Amino acid sequence: MPELPEVEVVRAGLAPAVTGATVEAVDVLDERALTRHPGLPSGFADELVGREIVAPVRRGKFLWMPLAGGDARALVGHLGMSGQLLLRAPGAPAERHERVRLFLLHPHHGELAVVFADQRTFGSLAIDALVPTADRAPGGHGADLAATPLMVAHIARDPLDPAFDENAFRRALARKESAVKRVLLDQTVVSGVGNIYADESLWAARVHPETPVRMLSARAVTRLLGELRAVLQKALAEGGTSFDAQYVNVNGQAGYFAHSLEAYGRGGAPCSRCGRPIQRVGFMNRSSHFCPRCQRLP
DNA sequence: GGAATAACCTGGATGC
DNA sequence: TGCATCCAGGTTATTC
Hints:
The chain is 23% helix and 23% strand. With 298 residues, it is of the alpha+beta class. The strands form 3 sheets. The protein has a 5-stranded antiparallel β-sheet. Strands 1-6-7-5 form a 4-stranded antiparallel β-sheet. A two-stranded antiparallel ribbon has the order 10-11. The two termini are 30 Å apart. The chain binds a DNA duplex (16 and 16 nucleotides) through residues 1-3, 32, 35-36, 61, 78-82, 97, 118-123, 175-178, 182, 185, 187, 194-195, 243-244, 246, 284-287.
């Protein structure tokens, strides 16, 4: 499931290959990949062909490639649960679940294809207008411009973003009545966190996922934020989390962070701190994993 | 207005 | 062996 580290690995992989490249042609094989595109699916290719791509940018789980020219538009991607952006030779055979293929011409690397494949079709591509950021800081990781696509404007900055406002994060927590895990998954409060890294950071900070967020002390919030950053950075260094073929980098290679997981996906296995079995419970139509001894409800 | 929930979707795993 | 059901979860629309 692509969360911040996985999307960042994809962004970093795309950057040298697509920056400065021109879109020569676009094949839309499945229009469900364009569900977030504000215009008609038929106009997607027309808007892209002939345009030069600027360096890719990421905020949270959203990825976008600004288009050169004066009209402030960008190709925006979200990988959903199973989306992949792959670099391929233009004549490479179709990927399983391939939805869109962009044919690019790069001034130094020549012709290449960017393939968007997505098994569960929760991911999408779109072309959207760029709007100024509210805090006037660069739009996200990899950005020079203080702008984001309109559809990303409501997404908070992620904890690894230098412009992440820790005080605003604390104020947002103080206003919430929900459980801490629900707030961590709220992309308008803090972005880039999904089920895996929410469970992992809560385990590391010894916080029960159902703890009402207003009951967390300032010290506990500091600890949680620190552990969240540490988990995300470690996952990034290890190339992200891959359980199966659902997440791979632009070359189709899996990440290694699944070997470092302490809570997520380890229901019934002993906690590495205390030995008690990790518990798995239903939460928000998905699963929460936590240690009942190390992570107690206040 | 904020919080909670359902729906979207596909393929692998499981049960019968 | 074949079919039916369950499960995974990010985002958003809908409901409370």
